[in-house]
C-alpha cells in the first residue's frame, strides 16, 4: 500500500481497497491500449498519465499494447508515432504488445464458445441485424440463425477463417440475450470477415476479432490487474465481464475494468476520424501541424512534456465528463517556459528608428539577462547601434496620457539600453511612417549603476539593431476553431467553425544570438510571447513557431456592470454572410425562376461580405451543395471587387468543377 499526504483519487481508492482485501502488490499491472489508427492527441494524455502514473506510484509495470484488430484503418506509421509520443512524455513501458499477438488464442477461445453453444454464425445483412437489435426501450428479435447446430457453426466459422466467403457474408456472434436491457449484450459480434492486409500478420487472417471480444481477453492474457478506460466504455463493462466468465481460470488473476472521465478540451476536436479529415482535406499540413491537438503537433509547436504532464495533474481524475478550458493548457506551458526559456529580442512588424545624436558607425555590445527567473542562466551580449527596428505598434505621433510607448516629445527606455525621446518622423508620399527620429541620453544605460540610468520612465520597448539583425520566418499560430465546441452542433459541420486566421506567416527580425538556434529550442521573444525553432528550419534559414502569447488574448471579458436604467431589447441585425448561408441551404430545391431571384439577392448581399468571412465556407461539406453554390456566387462578386486569387480560392473552384451538381459546376466555370 501507498501512504502519502495527498488525498487519493477514486481509482487509487479502488486499488487500495483491493490491496487491503488481499491482492498482492506484485500482482498490480496496468496498460495503455491505443488503437494505431491515428496519432495520439491531448485527450490521450490523461489516459496515458493515469495508467503510467499509477505504475510509478505503485512501482508496478505498465504495458503498451496496441489494439490492432482493424487492418482497414491501422498502419505501422501510427504505431511508431505513438511509441515516440509516449516516450517523449517521459514514460517507460514494461512490455510492447499487440492484440494481434493473441489472434490464435482468441480464435481458439471462440471455438470453445461455439462448442458450449454460446456463439453462432449469423448470415444476415448488417441492416437486418440492426433492425432486429431493438431499442433501449424495446427488446430485440432473435436471429433466424441463432439456433444453428454446433457442427454447422464450427464448419462455417472454419470456412470463414479459410477465406471462402466474401466480406459481410457471415459474422460470429455471442449468444447472450436479445431482450437484455443493455443493448451491448444483445448477441454482440465477435468476428467479422475483412480481407485486408494487416500491418503485422500480413494476409494470415481474413477474420478479425471485434474490440469487445479482444479487449478483456487481452487484459486477461497479460494479467492486467486494473483495466482503466474512459467513461464511454462503462456500458461495455457488463460484456467485458461476460466474455471473461467464459474463459477465466479461477487460479489466475481476473482483470477489473473501471472507468474515468475522458479529457475534453474547449476549442478542440478530439475525434481521430475528424482529425484525419483535417489532414486529408489539406486544412492542416499533417498530423504534426502545430495547430493540431496531437501530441506531435504540440511538441512541434513548442510544448514541453513537463507542461503537458502538469496540465493532466491539474485536470485530475473524475467520474463525470466535463470540458476543460484550453486556457489551462496554455497557462501550464507559460508557467513552464517562464522558468526555463531564455529571453531574446525580436521585432515582428518593423519600423526604422534612427537615434540622431548617436555617433554614426559606432556600435556597442550591451549585457542582457537571459532569464530573470533562473539565476544560473547568465547573461549574453547584444549589439546596439544608431539605427534600430522597433515594433510599428510601439509608436504613435500623438497619444493620450495612458499610452506608455514611444511618441513625439516623450521618453521611453529601450530594453537593456538607453532612454530615448521621440522628436520627428519621416513619411512617404502616402503618409506612411518610414523612419522615427529620436535622441538618446548617453548617461541612462540600463544596469550601469549611475543615477541617470536609474531614472524611471513608464514605457520599455524591445528592439533589434538593423545592422546586426537576422531575418527569420515566424509562424504565428492561433486556435484552429473559433467555437468552444466545434463538433457539438447538430445542424452544422465542425468545419464551419474553422478559424481563417489560425496561421499567419511573418518575416521578422531577431537578435544575432539566435544564429545558432537549434530545432526544438524554446525562447521568450520579450513582450511578444514564447516561440520555438520549427522542424523546417535549416542552416541559414531561421523558422520559429509561436507556442503561446505572454497572456491569454482569448480570455472572456468581465461582465459589464448592470445598469438600473430600463433596457430596450433590439433584435440584432443578421450578418450578410449568415443570410447568404441560409439562402443557399434551399437553393437546389427551388424552381429555376426562383433560383435566379435568390441568386440576385445573394449577389446584393455579397457586397457587404469580406473575404475573411467567406473563406471558412470553402470547406463546406460536399453534401451541402446549395451552400457551396451560394459561396461560389459570393466569391464571384468578391473577385470582381478586386480580391486577389490565392491557393484556397483555387482549391475551392477546382473542387466545385469536379462536383456532380450542374448548377455548382456552372457557377464555378463562371469564375475560372
Automatic annotation (TrEMBL):
Superkingdom: Bacteria
Annotated catalysed reactions: tRNA(Gln) + L-glutamine + ATP = L-glutaminyl-tRNA(Gln) + AMP + diphosphate
Location in the cell: Cytoplasm
GO terms, biological process: glutaminyl-tRNA aminoacylation; glutamyl-tRNA aminoacylation
Pfam family, any one: tRNA-synt_1c_C2
Enzyme Commission designation: 6.1.1.18
Entry GO CC: cytosol
Motif 'KMSKS' region boundaries: 269-273
Binding site for ATP: 35-37, 262-263, 270-272
Limits of the tRNA synthetases class I (E and Q) anti-codon binding domain: 460-534
Major location category of this protein: cytoplasm
Keyword ATP-binding among record annotations: yes
Domain Glutamyl/glutaminyl-tRNA synthetase class Ib anti-codon binding: 341-441
Binding-site residues, L-glutamine: 67, 211
Sequence motif: 'HIGH' region, positions: 34-44
Glutamyl/glutaminyl-tRNA synthetase class Ib catalytic domain mapped to chain residues: 27-338
Keywords: Aminoacyl-tRNA synthetase, ATP-binding, Cytoplasm, Ligase, Nucleotide-binding, Protein biosynthesis
Gene Ontology molecular function terms on file: ATP binding; glutamine-tRNA ligase activity
Family to which the UniProt record says this protein belongs: Belongs to the class-I aminoacyl-tRNA synthetase family.
Subunit-structure text: Monomer.
Protein name, UniProt field: Glutamine--tRNA ligase
Organism: Snuella sedimenti
Gene this chain is encoded by: glnS
